[in-house]
Amino acid sequence: MGTNLAVQRTLSLSEGNNFAWILENYFPGFNINIFEKARMRKGWRIERRTDSYSLIIPGFFANAPDEIKIALLKWAQILVNNKFSRKDSNCSIKSQIKDLESTIYGFIRTKIGAVGRRTIYYPQVKFADTRGKKYDLREIFDRINNEYFDGGMECFLRWGKGKSRTSYHAICNDEKGKPYHLITIAGVYNLKNIPDFAIEAVMYHEMLHVAFPPIEVGAKRNIHHRKFREMEREFPHYEKWKRWQSTKRR
Questions:
Q1: Are residues 59 and 87 in the same domain?
Q2: Does residue 90 sit in helix, strand or coil?
């Protein structure tokens, strides 16, 4: 499974094993440039050039557990070996990619939401306007909150930028250091042709992250654990939403 790529390891040492050590010991023959960006927070990506590939990651991954570093490199290796094609990959490969991304996103959420790591001042002002092109997030949230969570959940809400595709929940600090929940709904849902069941389903999904936090299973942090999945499937339009999502990814 080797690839003929240039090697450039620029990450600082972490408390555990660094990427260079993990590449040599877990991925012999797989060479890839790895760069960290201090200001990068929410994702990661591979950049492909004429004769090399680079894995671009947030700076905090330098101190990630080995499990997360291995997941990142395995994700990159699968995509490189499949020529970046998800659509043409078999179900097994797609499932591996999905599981790896779930693990990586779980780690990112803990870093974005960790108390003391991210401060957004005056959220009551910054997130006051929740209106979108068709939906007001506050109206959607309040309706689901009353129907499924007995009205007891408190969150700030915002739309993601542009055509962003990832919705997520984070725990942030206000100006006094007090933590609060923030739900961001992907920008692709901020369109006039989005059906009611879709915006309600994605909001319900993110609210479940508040109601049912991640659990630790050994060294793995599971954000979509059994209880979470059980509750998610109780949403009346769950299957309809999943089918709708699959058509949007094509």
A1: yes
A2: coil
How far apart CA 161 and CA 163 sit, in angstroms, is 6
Report the alpha-carbon distance of residue 214 to residue 144 in Å, rounded.
21
The 10s digit of each residue's pLDDT in 123-140 is: 999 999 999 999 999 999
Please indicate, yes or no, whether residues 81 and 136 belong to a single structural domain of this protein.
no
Q: What is the pLDDT of residues 42-93, one digit of tens each?
A: 678 888 877 778 888 888 888 788 888 899 999 999 988 887 766 656 777 8
Residues 23 and 140 in one domain: no
Query: 95 is written with which tokens?
Result: 């499932």
3-state secondary structure of 4: coil
H or E segment at 207? helix 196-211
Sign of the C-alpha dihedral computed for residues 19, 23, 24 and 30 taken in this order: negative
User: What would the two tokens of residue 178 be?
Assistant: 């007090």
Q: Compute the distance between CA of residue 171 and CA of residue 109 in angstroms, rounded to an integer.
A: 8
* Two structure tokens written together for 2: 């080797």
d(CA 157, CA 136): 10
